[in-house]
Amino acid sequence: MIASLIALAGLTPSLAAGMGLLTLVHGDAYWIQSDPRYMGTDGLHCCGVDDCRPARKGEVIAFESGYVITSTGQVVRPDRNRGIYTSIDERFWLCFWKGHVRCMFVPNLTQ
Fold this sequence. Notes:
The protein is an alpha+beta fold.
């Protein structure tokens, strides 16, 4: 779909990226949506447009064996869940599907 929009506008992908058009399609979470390796616990891609966002302050609470997502009440344990990946920045990112977190991106807290 993105390629179709860029082609319709008569732009090359590099020109569109330089203009920031690729990030407009999915906003700040474009890096998640564009990577096919990111799959949720159900085996489906982590997100579509508007499904992923940075976690709000206090929305993710880390504990010894995992995380609690305060907005959904979910407990996410890395040893039991697929769909947990490393964030590209210092923020937690959450991807939602039907009111639950499908994928979670965790900052590298050891740096």
